[in-house]
Design a protein that fits this description.
The protein has ten helices and 13 strands. The protein is globular, with a radius of gyration of 26 Å. About 1% of the residues have low confidence. Helix 1 runs antiparallel to helix 2 and helix 6 packs antiparallel against helix 7. Strand 12 and strand 13 form a beta hairpin. It has a six-stranded antiparallel β-sheet with strand order 3-2-1-6-5-4, sandwiched between helices. The protein is an alpha+beta fold.
Length: 404
């Protein structure tokens, strides 16, 4: 380290002290955060601050493919980066991940391992990289990178020291959060499947009796069919939610026509609406910007809202779909003329396994659909809202950022 003296030495010591203070503050924050997206954002913010860089990114290994994927970034094109797979072989991040050793590269243009696939797809230009492995229990789970030292300066050993200290805390926090979310969801899932399993057990037991009438036997078979179908749906929803909550859900973003997707979903739900004599209509703006999102997952959100709007509607009711094109986002609203939701239930409507019960047995479904819809919308940078009046109807609105 250079031999500083006088005011310069004092300045260096003050800067180092502030870094240690920030590192301690981050440690407290990470240990108290069990929401994975929020956790990753905190790590990214701390990485750029501790290394005085323009940006940072986190890549985690995909257990299915063994490749690295971007999970968080300060770059404004982070939604594009999520779809980029970084090869472990022949890349800087791959070398850090494979060897478990940091790399400090002050000019990536001179390093043949620099993966230019990222810079080619986003607006950010990488000039320098300081990367460290994310290691938990002696196993690499990903890479934390700080990009472009400000003022064109070179990275220092002190930058490396602080980024390694942050990465050590971050790796433990990421693994802990994933395990907590999985165990929490599994516990809830086990609790929820007890009801259909109990119904199946009782039905099969009764079917063994010789004194059942043909009508009773047919009713037991229908119960078995219904509960088996419910378990299958619950399993699918459970896997979807587990991937979303653990950060392992993959979004394939593309530009597409949202009004066209709305009409496509209405056609899917139309037979269900016809069976209950529910009328559906749609009113969308004539001019609509392309939406940059995962079309399949947005379709999942729309189908959930439309299906609920029909299922919990009155016989002969209505479902109205409308859209709004705002300066920074677009929104879709689905309004039904159904029972409505009691005010005490509204704060819980997006919670896992929450179902509104009433005297008519309004408890169908897995209680996961709206929780999944909320996480899909929020993963796109949007939001979802509910408004409801008992005996009048319910309105769900979700927003998405305008396409880029």
């Amino acid at each position: 380290m250079p031999d500083y003296s006088g005011p310069e030495r004092r300045r260096v010591y003050d800067l180092r002290f502030r870094r240690y203070e920030r590192l301690l503050e981050v440690a407290r924050t990470l240990s108290g955060t069990l929401d994975l997206p929020a956790l990753l954002r905190n790590i990214i913010a701390a990485a750029t601050e501790l290394t005085d860089t323009e940006a940072a990114s986190i890549m985690l290994v995909d257990s299915r493919t063994g490749q690295l994927r971007f999970e968080a970034s300060t770059d404004p094109s982070a939604d594009v980066m999520e779809s980029i797979v970084v090869p472990v072989e022949g890349s800087i991040a791959g070398a850090i991940f494979s060897t478990g050793k940091p790399l400090m590269i002050d000019d990536v243009a001179t390093d043949p391992r620099h993966y230019r696939g990222v810079d080619n797809k986003v607006t950010f230009v990488t000039r320098s990289i300081l990367g460290v492995p994310l290691v938990s229990k002696e196993k690499s789970i990903g890479v934390l990178q700080a990009l472009n030292k400000k003022k064109g300066e070179a990275f220092t050993q002190e930058d490396l020291h602080f980024l390694e200290a942050l990465a050590a805390q971050a790796a433990v926090a990421i693994v802990t959060t994933r395990l907590f979310q999985q165990s929490d969801l599994i516990a809830e899932m086990v609790h929820e499947i007890r009801t259909p399993l109990a119904a199946l057990s009782a039905s099969t037991h009764l079917l063994l009796r010789n004194d059942l009438s043909a009508d009773q036997r047919e009713e037991m078979v229908r119960t078995i069919q219904s509960e088996t179908s419910r378990l299958a749906t619950m399993t699918t929803d459970f896997l979807d939610l587990a991937r979303l909550e653990s950060g392992r859900a993959r979004f394939v973003r593309e530009r597409f026509d949202l009004p066209k997707l709305v009409h496509e979903c209405l056609q899917v739900v139309q037979p269900q609406a016809d069976s209950r004599r529910v009328t559906m209509d749609v009113l969308l703006p004539g001019e609509w910007p392309a939406v940059f999102a995962d079309r399949g997952k947005i379709k999942q959100v729309l189908l959930n809202l439309l299906t609920n709007a029909v299922k919990y509607n009155r016989e002969g009711g209505t479902v109205h779909v409308s859209g709004l094109d705002a300066p920074d986002h677009v929104s879709i609203t689905v309004v039904d003329s159904g029972r409505g939701i009691p005010p005490p239930a509204l704060p819980h409507i997006f919670e896992k396994f929450y179902r509104v019960a009433d005297s008519e047995g309004w408890t169908q479904g897995t209680g996961l659909g709206l929780a999944i819809a909320k996480r899909i919308v929020e993963a796109h940078g949007g939001a979802i809202f509910i408004g409801s009046t008992v005996n009048v109807g319910t309105a769900f609105t979700f927003t998405l950022p305008r396409g880029k």
